[in-house]
Specification:
By secondary structure, this protein is α+β, with helices and mostly antiparallel strands. It folds into three domains: 48-260, Immunoglobulin-like (Sandwich); 275-302 and 460-484 and 501-522, no CATH class; 307-455 and 527-628, no CATH class. It contains 15 helices and 25 strands. It has helices at 2-22, 265-268, 277-301, 341-349, 355-366, 402-414, 434-450, 466-493, 498-520, 529-547, 550-555, 559-563, 566-572, 575-589, 606-625, and strands at 51-61, 67-76, 84-90, 92-94, 101-104, 106-113, 121-128, 131-137, 149-159, 162-164, 174-181, 188-196, 203-209, 219-223, 226-234, 239-246, 257-260, 305-307, 321-323, 370-376, 386-392, 423-425, 598-599, 650-651, 653-657. Helix 4 runs parallel beside helix 13 and helix 5 packs antiparallel against helix 13. The relative contact order is 0.16. The chain crosses the membrane at residues 272-294, 469-492, 498-519.
Length: 658
């Protein structure tokens, strides 16, 4: 079956390639990088081995909205004798609000100098497909070469880079959301960026990693009209993106520079393909079946490792490792070894989820670092939405993980003084805490990686579902029917051969199948033998929390211990069961006190208490990771789309040796 699927995909891909070659001249993607950029003749060595030792970027925004940019490179040629380097700049991008328009970034005034005495020429080598390529240093064929670390300063101006934010908490602000690079061709050891504007900076953010990454930069700060960003160990193909927002009216104009998009020939033939809908429907069915077949293969590869011949849950590093098998759950009366509730959420789900944040807050509160108070606000409509106040205690952090320390530090940044200590409301973190939340998540996953719980790092849990897959299938058939109408007309007029358009329809089907396969193959990672052992321990502890009896707990004098297991119950999704058992303990023992770290409204039982705390955990996770809306979309209008990501701003480009 697996071999058949491979053969099918190979045949379809070959057909798609044939059609792609035939249609190569009809449609050119606006933002496709020329392979010749990385294919320049080697200058006494491999330019791909160059490294940017340090890059300092200074961006001065004037009141007209123009950006004056100064880039100072410490370029490390190593042992090779190099001519210099190239810098590509994105000058045109698609504009999502209007597909018939292209957004233009006008680049001018390029100038280069070298403090180290290296050749400092600069010329426009090419400008096509929305990409301007600057060559810097000595001309091709020159013997004036350099080696080691050389310093170059490139200056230029950019017009049309400011956006007006139209939605979200930052609505009304004006932003500079900019890709320093969107696909770097050489690694950079460190990059520092400074943005100065004509008014006070109101909001900042930064991202680094492959295009679309939400990983924040190492540090960022702002003071008055100036913001700074620091990046380290930037890898090849990474994007480096910064954002600075200013008050409304800071810039004379925030309107993008737009020009008409060139005619899209594919649109002219969009109505030319569905007499073959029946044949292609069969192809779609086969490809979909193949995608799900591949998904089954992936599931086999997702099997955990386990120590062979060892009782499940026992840590035995010296035992042989093999595929894990289903085994009965052995009840365990304590949490898994060396794991926090937040880490257990990741371990149980094999995925990064926002739930970890809410669970961690409850755990920190139980440990004495937070007090949680339920409050309500009366809105103009008379509604009283739930909200919670977090009050940070003066307890000195001890024995906490890095992500727990970062959480407490980040909360203090947003907190205001109160009579009980620094205090912050969960609702007021919405669309403001997202960058800190991303850094907390990053630290959490580094800790999971350090403990070697998984064979590869878990992915962020996708919100896609079987419903989305079904939607894509229906969309594929709908698109085929639309194309079929055009094919019928073409066949009737005898202007085109139906079979000549068949490869394009197949490409469309393959696109749909790839989308389905992408959803199907977004597989979870497998646990290591150590991670699987801790997973079995967690399963055993969950079994205890689900089956524990109040009388037994009282008899063994474990009431206080059991009351501290709420974060674990939340991690397992059984906090309601925990509340029921605690109520039974209260009825039998007469101890009616609730936890001192939580103050709620209308709480008359532990069932109410657990429900209220569960709502707190869920609301905290949702509010603290929510991101601000903004104008445009990724690579479209250049706006800080939904909180942003690396490569999601305007501009961009690359740099590489020559």
């Amino acid at each position: 079956m697996h071999r058949l699927i491979r053969v099918l995909f190979a045949a379809l891909c070959a057909l798609a390639l044939t059609s792609g070659i035939a249609a190569g001249a009809t449609a050119q993607p606006l933002r496709t990088y020329e392979t010749s950029v990385r294919g320049l003749p080697a200058a006494n060595g491999n330019p791909g081995d160059d490294v940017i030792d340090h890059l300092d970027v200074e961006i001065q925004l004037n009141s007209s909205g123009d950006a004056n940019i100064r880039e100072t490179y410490r370029w490390d040629f190593g042992q090779r004798r190099g001519l210099g380097f190239y810098r590509t700049l994105v000058t045109k991008m698609g504009y999502s609000p209007d597909p018939d328009k292209i957004r233009v970034y006008e680049v001018s005034g390029e100038h280069v100098s070298s403090a180290s005495g290296a050749p400092a020429g600069v010329w426009r080598e090419s400008e096509s497909r929305g990409l301007l390529k600057l060559s810097i240093g000595a001309p091709d064929g020159s013997d004036d070469r350099v080696t080691g670390i050389q310093t170059y300063t490139l200056t230029y101006q950019v017009k049309g880079a400011i956006n007006a934010i139209k939605e979200g908490d930052n609505a009304g602000l004006e932003e500079f959301y900019w890709n320093i690079f969107d696909n770097l061709d050489v690694p950079a050891r460190s990059i520092d960026v400074t943005v100065s504007g004509p008014a006070e900076v109101k909001d900042i953010s930064c991202f680094v990693g492959p295009s679309g990454s939400d990983t924040p930069c190492n540090s960022y700060n702002s003071s008055l009209n100036r913001s700074t960003y620091s990046f380290s160990d930037v890898q090849k193909r990474d994007a480096v993106t910064i954002m600075a927002a200013f008050p409304s009216g800071t810039f004379a104009s925030t309107a993008p520079i737009l020009v008409d998009a060139p005619p899209d020939r594919s649109r002219q033939f969009t109505s030319m393909l569905s007499m073959i809908a029946g044949v292609l429907a069969a192809v779609v069915g086969v490809v979909v079946a193949g995608s799900f077949g591949l998904r089954r293969i992936h599931r086999r590869r997702e099997r955990d490792e386990a120590w062979m011949g060892v009782t499940p849950g026992v840590i035995s590093p010296g035992a042989p490792v093999g595929p894990a098998e289903e085994t009965p759950i052995a009840v365990r009366f304590t949490p898994p070894e060396n794991l926090t509730p937040a880490e257990t959420v990741v371990l149980m789900n094999k995925a990064r989820t926002d739930k970890s944040l809410g669970v961690m807050l409850v755990d920190l509160a139980i440990k004495g670092y937070l007090w949680v108070s339920e409050v309500s606000w009366t809105t103009l409509s008379g509604k009283k939405p739930n909200d919670w106040a977090l009050t940070l205690t003066d307890q000195v952090p001890e024995g906490l993980a890095s992500y727990e320390n970062r959480t407490l530090s980040a909360l203090r940044v947003f907190a205001n003084p109160s009579e009980h200590g620094p205090q912050v409301y969960i609702s007021r973190l919405k669309r403001k805490f997202h960058t800190s939340a991303a850094m907390i998540d990053h630290d959490l996953m580094r800790e999971v990686e350090r403990k070697q719980l998984f064979k590869s790092q878990p992915k962020k849990r996708s919100k896609s579902s079987a419903g989305m897959i079904f939607f894509l299938i229906v969309l594929g058939f709908f698109m085929l029917n639309m194309l079929g109408t055009g094919v019928s007309i073409t066949a009737a007029t005898q202007r085109f051969s139906v079979m000549s358009w068949l490869p394009f329809a197949v490409v469309l089907v393959i696109f749909c199948s790839i989308m389905i396969s992408a959803f199907g193959s977004g597989k979870k990672t497998a646990r290591t033998a150590y991670g699987h052992a801790l997973f079995k321990q967690a399963e055993g502890f969950k079994e205890y929390l689900e089956t524990a009896e109040a009388d037994q707990i009282i008899h063994e004098s474990k009431q206080a211990e059991f009351s501290r297991w709420l974060p674990w119950a939340m991690a397992f999704g059984i906090e309601d069961r925990w509340g029921v058992v605690m109520d039974q303990i209260v009825q039998r023992s007469g101890n009616t006190g609730y936890s001192s770290w939580y103050q709620g409204r209308n709480i008359t039982s532990y069932t109410d208490f657990s429900s209220s705390v569960s709502q707190f955990g869920s609301s905290s996770s949702t509010s603290m990771v929510s991101q601000p809306s903004s104008s445009g979309s990724s690579g479209g209008s250049g706006g800080f789309s939904g909180g942003g990501s690396s490569g999601g701003g305007g501009g961009g480009g690359s740099a590489g040796g020559r």
